[in-house]
Structures are given as structure tokens and as C-alpha cells.
Amino acid sequence: MSSTTTNEDILSDSELLRYSRHISIKAMDFEGQERLKLAKVLVIGVGGLGCAATQYMTVAGVGMMTLVDFDTVELSNLQRQVLHQDNNIGQPKVESAKESLNKLNPHVQIETINGQQGDHELDSLIANHTLIMDCTDNIPVREQLNISCFTHKVPLVSAAAIRMEGTVTSFNYQDDTPCYQCFSHLIAEQNLTCVESGILAPVVGMIGSLQAIEAIKIISNMGKPLIGRILMIDAMTMEFREMKLAKQVNCAVCANS
Predict the structure, then answer these.
(1) Which of 55, 171, 191, 201 could be stapled to 80 by a disulfide with Cβ–Cβ 3.0 to 4.6 Å?
(2) What is this structure's pTM?
(3) Judging by DSSP bridges, how do beta strands 165-171 and 156-162 pair with one another?
(4) What is the tens place of the pLDDT at every residue in 165-195?
(5) Is the distance from CB of 94 to CB of 67 less than 8 angstroms?
């Protein structure tokens, strides 16, 4: 008896119909959708970016997501964190997000971790996932994610949004490509927050959606991800710009790879 795996073994009839518009894209086809179904994505942060990105990862058909956050839902979150509602105020964000995501697609397995993770815990999580989505607003956390992703060669998709602006970039940790540390040393240490500077709701939704697109492209091996490139969006003027990101010769993380 042949042990060859068919499309039907990975994707059910219901899923084939659900994702038919994806499968119709030649660059995605059955193979790309299967890769997405088999993927395990770790999402760090379920605030504005995390809410937007995970919605589209869920409806797109990623097989499994692990949501990590230590915060609870507050009234001021509801302006932009679209997975949370008034009746979720006071609830852990990961549980509120899971409730909403489960309603979007029952085929996706959602795991949650409510609490801050130490370096060892993060490293173990990263080693057991296909791709990491950085949806935090904390540079030290991002730098720690970068170290573990570099060690285990797990792709990282990182984004940021504040006021009317946002950035998206990706890292695949190949010998000739930069890492997040190469990027972070170029930006200011001010680490502004939405509380201090504000954020327009659709801006964070747009950036989170772009982050999901990058993740899907990398997992399904489709298109040209933002490796070695930073996409910068200014919603005030609706300008999209791209900046090349080179590997830094003196990078403390990847210079000697």
C-alpha cells in the first residue's frame, strides 16, 4: 500500500472549500496551503498588532498558533485591539483573543500562555515553532527573540506602529542576511509607547495585516519577503517607502555566523 500523502490527507474537504480562493493563486496552490496548515506560529503580544495579524493568520488557515501575553484587557485597548470587546475587560488578553479566533476558524489550534516568559522559556518555545511573529512594543524583548531565532534559524516577522506610522521587516537568519540586532542599533532607544504618543486604529490594523502577509509568504514559500528590507508606512501622507537593511559587520549576534 502506498504511503504517499495526498492533499486530502492534510486538508479536509471543508478546508479545501474554505481556502479555495487561496489555492486558486498559482504561487500558493495546494502545496502552499498545506505548508500553512502544517505550520506552528508563535505570536508574542496580543495587543493592536497581534490582534490584527492573528485574525488573518487564523482565517488564512495556519495550523497552530501559540499566543503569549501577560496583560489584561482594558477599556482603552478597545479602540484598536479588535479581538477584545467590552465584556472581555479584565480578562487575560490571550484568553479573550483565543475566544474570538476560535469563532473565525474552527480548524486552527490556538494555544495560550498568560504570563511573562524568561529567556529559557522563550528559547524553548521558539525552538518548537515554524515562525515567530513579533507583535510587542519592547526592544529588549525583541532583541531576546532575535537571539533565539538566530540560534534555531526560525524566521522572525517584526512590526511596529505608533501615531500614524509603521514598519514591517522579516528575518530568515541565513549567512548573508541581517538580523534584528542589525536593525535595532539603527533606531533610537526612545522606545515610545502608544500611551505617550497615540496610535490611529486603522494604522495598527494595516501594519498587522502586512505582518500576516509576510508570515504567510515565508511559510508557503511564496513571493519575495522583506528580508534585508524595511517597509516604512506614513499614513499621514499615505507614503510607502523601502529602506535596505544590510548585515552589520560588527553585529553582536550574527557577525560571526
Answers:
(1) 201
(2) 0.92
(3) antiparallel
(4) 999 999 999 989 999 999 987 765 455 555 6
(5) yes
